[in-house]
Each structure stands twice: as C-alpha cells, then as structure tokens.
Write a structure and sequence with these properties.
Aldehyde Dehydrogenase, Chain A, domain 2; seven-stranded mixed β-sheet; Aldehyde Dehydrogenase, Chain A, domain 1; five-stranded parallel β-sheet; 14 helices; globular; alpha/beta; 515 residues; 20 strands; binds nicotinamide-adenine-dinucleotide
Length: 515
C-alpha cells in the first residue's frame, strides 16, 4: 500500500472575510443541531440511560450543547466483553483495511471541518483559529498513524541463527481503555483511540464530561469510515464511576490516559494492582499537566519573545497543557520585556468564542473558581501587572492576567492553574534562569529566547522538558514534527504524533523455527 508522504493539514485563515462568513454559516448550522441526546455505543447496541451528562457552552452556560448518556459500572463490563469479542476478528484484519478506516475518517472530517470547528467553538469555547488548529490536528493524527501502521505492522528481520528461521513481529495487545480530557476533545480523543485501533487493538473510549458531544460525533465518523461494531465502544460517563471501573477491571489490557496529574497518578497506582482473574500486567501511558516555562535572556529579540509569550499564555485562555505559565526573564531586560508583554496582552479582547474574541471563557464553574483562588493570591505573592479579576455576566470569564515580580517558589509559579494567568519571574542571569526553569515537578514544554548560540546549545542539553522550543512559542506542537509528551510528573513521555507512538499498544513476538 503506497500512500503520499505525510504532510500536515493546511490552516484556513478566518480573518479573510469570505472564510469568516463560512465560519458564521457553520456556527448557524451547528446551532440548529444543539440539544440532542447521544447514547452509549457498546458493540452493535446504542444504549440510552436515564442519567444524562449535559455539555454546556462555557461562554454561555445556559446553552446546552447536547446530552450524553452516562455509563454505569455494568456498562463498563459489557463494553469490555464486546471489545474482546471484536478483538478476535479485528486483530486478524488486513492492515490495508485498518489503514483505510483511518484515511476515510480523515477525509470525512476534512469535508466537515467547519462543522467540527463550529462545534468546538460552542462546546468548549475555542475561537476560530484555536478550533481550526484542533480539527487540523485530529486529521493529522489519523493521516500520520495510518502511515505509521504501515511501518510497524510488518515482520521484523532478526539475526538468523544457524539451523533456524528467525523473525519477530509486533502484535496488538488486546482491549484498551482511552480516557481523555476536555481541552482537546476531538484531536486527543481521536488520536488516543485511532493509534491503538490501527495497530489491531479494540477500544473503549471514555470522553471528558464537559465535551461529550464532539466525542460522539468523532465516534460516528469512525463508524461511518467502516470501523466494525465492537472495535470502538463509546462510554461517556463520570470519571470516578465508569472511568474508575475501567481502570480497575481485570479485563482491561492497557490504559491510554491524558488528563490531570492527580488522576493520572491514581490510575498508575491502581492499574499496577493485579485483580483476581487478571492475566497480564496492564500497560499504562499517561500524559499529564505542566507548569511550562520560557526563559528570555538579555540577548533575545524582545518583540519576538513578547509575541510568543502572549500567544503561549493566553491562547485558549491558557487551557493547554503546553501553555506558557512561567515567564522567566533575566533582570537586564526584565522591565522592557514585561512592558512589551503587558502592552500586547492589553489589546486582547475577552469575550464569546462564537464572536471570535481572543480570550474566551474557561471550561466550567470548577475551573473558574480555581482561577479565582489564584487571582486572590496574586497580589499577596507578586504584583498584578494586568487583569486580576473575573469577568461579569454569564460565562466563566477570567481576565487575561499577568502577575509580575514572583519568586520562583511562589504557588503561582509552581502550581498548574489552567487559566489565563501568567506568572513572571525575574532572575539575575542566564544560569539562574536555567535553574529556575527546571525547578518544577513537571517537565512538559519549555523554551528559551536568546541569540547566543552557546546558550541555545546549553538549553538543548539541560532544559529538562519533553518538548523544547527555541526562539518560538512553546505551544502548537505539530503531528509528525514535534512528537508530544512530558518528563517528570508530566507523564510517561509517550510522544503522541511521534514515530514510536503505536508501539505503546503492541508487543513483540519473536518466532524461531528449526529447519
Ligand atoms: P481530569 O484528570 O480531570 O480528567 C481527565 C479524564 O479523566 C476525564 O475523562 C475524566 O472523566 C477522567 N477521570 C477523572 N477521574 C477519574 C478516575 N478516578 N478514574 C478514571 N478516569 C477518571 O483532567 P481534565 O480537567 O479533563 O484535563 C485537564 C488536564 O489535562 C490538565 O492537567 C492538562 O494539563 C492535562 N492535559 C495534558 C495533556 C498532555 O498531553 N500532557 C494534554 C491535554 C490536557
């Protein structure tokens, strides 16, 4: 099977009036599709439960985007049975068939890109460019993993012992559980399921409570693309009920998780316990939070650094695991850089995602309340240079906030906030900056702005993060170019969108035949 070389999906520029008008039309169309109910999908059955989970527009929480059914512990067991049954045939399916499903799904989403964008705008409050980036990433994951399967699902040449015919091959693990967060509810949701599926596994997918509708749409795309019943089982529900049951269940073979540090660490510990009747050691991939730092030294291009800081800190209201949340600045350029960052951030418009405002609401009441705790702390730990308050009216709005003059050990400088709040930390010199940037329990993204070659090289060696960015913003990893995953308590460094990702969901079988 020969495919054209992988290339990422192009972005549409919605600042152009014609494209903007198309987006408005897609929003109108999707508004007409709101309020629907989405069932669980287990094998061939679509099951509607009495309990429902409502997904709300964070910018306008009185607007119900849709309601998913809510899976119980019994549904988890049924889904595992259905997935193991489907595994018996899917593991023997032709590689071309599996690859074909991913490519077909990519083409369906490409054709409906504006609709998916519009749904992301309404369901989780992504403005047009953020939504476009996510839908494009979902397409990229499908295209990229399809090609990776063609590489990895092949016999492997080994050294031939005299008198033997020897080879090895990667085979799928079995039934996996994918548990995903709300902040990339299309791209991460699809990527985490599609990679194991194309490798021959069958999956149970548990989306985040705040973004069940786009996940339901994504599952429908995979089914429309030809995925047989039971290969994907859709189990929306509460993390602490159905998520917990799936993690603990003896029939779960592997867990692919992205979410918060605390839930991820709990999953890691729980999955390590061998339950009665369990016949394997569960494999766990975890991609967790971050407290991502960017250093600016006295040799840096300060305008470029300020642009990157604002994009990294306030894109999607700081709700990316890769978001810039610690700006670490060498004292010689500290006042000048801070002034530039504040000047740029002052121009950001806070408002509705569907109006394409720059800074949209945070996802829910819990997140809004959490951000407010840090806003209260801000003047005690540092100096509020911009923002510092919640927005008024409906919607979970938090002003883009810059807190300057923070000590590296301040809570604002150490804890993941997941909102539009940037901590700025002055340091004496480059050496101190390198110490401060690494002095966190996390290690997801990080960066340096400098024009000094030896410092850039030093950062390449010593800045301890899974994704390092030099002289550019620290968000916006591209599938295939920037394999994504964190060090330390940011995760198991599984590197989604990278060349080894599929191997997490496969095991190598070595076969020696005497001749
Ligand atoms: P979360 O941990 O609250 O929830 C993630 C998922 O876990 C949800 O589907 C939830 O229902 C489920 N869950 C909750 N409790 C569970 C339990 N006991 N057992 C099983 N499942 C359970 O995270 P969130 O608020 O949805 O997402 C934000 C977090 O995700 C942030 O910390 C962010 O940094 C992180 N994140 C990391 C990456 C990455 O690639 N490293 C990407 C996106 C988000």
């Amino acid at each position: 099977m020969n495919l054209p070389t992988y290339a990422p999906e192009n972005y549409t520029d919605y600042s152009q009036p014609a494209h903007h008008a198309d987006y408005e039309a897609a929003l109108e169309k999707v508004r007409g599709m709101l309020g629907r109910d989405y069932p669980l999908i287990i094998g061939t059955e679509r099951i509607t439960t009495e309990d429902k989970i409502s997904s709300l527009n964070p910018c306008k929480p009185s607007q119900i985007i849709g309601r998913t059914s809510s899976a119980s512990q019994d549904h988890a067991s049924l889904a595992l049975q259905a997935a193991w049954k489907a595994f018996e045939t899917w593991k023997h399916s032709l590689l071309e068939t599996r690859v074909g499903v991913l490519l077909k799904a990519a083409s369906i989403i490409k054709a409906r890109k504006l609709e998916f964008n519009a749904l992301l705008t309404l369901e989780i409050g992504k403005n047009f460019a953020e939504a476009e980036g996510e839908t494009a990433e979902a397409i990229d994951f499908l295209e990229y993993y399809a090609r990776q399967a063609l590489i990895h699902c092949q016999p492997i040449q080994t050294f031939q012992m005299p008198g033997e015919r020897d080879h090895a091959e990667y085979i799928p693990l079995g039934v996996g559980v994918s548990i995903t967060p709300w902040n990339f509810p299309l791209a991460i949701f699809l990527g985490q399921a599609a990679a194991p599926i194309v490798a021959g596994n069958t999956m149970i997918v548990k989306p985040a409570e705040d973004a069940g509708v786009v996940a339901a749409w994504a599952v429908d795309v995979l089914l429309e693309a030809g995925l047989p019943a039971g290969v994907i089982n859709f189990l929306p529900g509460l993390g602490e009920i159905v998520g917990k049951t799936l993690v603990e269940h003896p029939k779960t073979r592997f867990i692919n998780f992205t979410g918060s540090k605390n839930v991820g660490l709990w999953i890691n510990a729980e999955a390590a316990k061998v339950q009665p009747g369990q016949r394997w050691i569960k494999r766990v991939t975890l991609e967790l939070g971050g407290k991502d730092g960017m250093v600016v030294d006295e040799t840096a291009d300060l305008d470029a650094a300020a642009d990157a800081a604002v994009a990294g800190a306030f894109g999607f209201a700081g709700q990316k695991c890769s978001a810039l949340s610690r700006l670490i600045v060498v004292q010689d350029v500290y006042p000048a850089l801070l002034e530039k960052v504040v000047a740029r951030a002052t121009k950001l418009v806070m408002g509705q995602a569907e109006d394409n405002a720059n800074v949209n609401a945070v996802i829910n009441k819990e997140s809004y309340d959490k951000s407010k705790i840090y806003l209260e702390l801000a003047p005690k730990e540092g100096r509020v240079a911009l923002g510092g308050a919640a927005g008024d009216g409906e919607g979970y709005f938090i002003q883009p906030t810059i807190v300057a003059d923070l000590k590296p050990e301040a809570r604002l400088a150490q804890e993941e906030i997941f909102g539009p709040i940037l901590a700025v930390i002055p340091v004496k010199d480059f050496n101190e900056a390198m110490h401060v940037v690494n002095d966190t329990e996390y290690g997801l993204t990080g960066g340096l702005f400098s024009s000094d070659e030896s410092r850039l090289m030093h950062a390449e060696r010593e800045l301890h993060v899974g994704n390092l960015y030099l002289n550019r913003k620290i968000t916006g990893a591209m599938v295939g170019s920037h394999p994504f995953g964190g060090f330390n308590l940011s995760g198991t460094d599984s590197k989604g969108g990278g060349p080894d990702y599929l191997l997490h969901f496969m095991q190598m079988k070595s076969i020696a035949r005497k001749i």
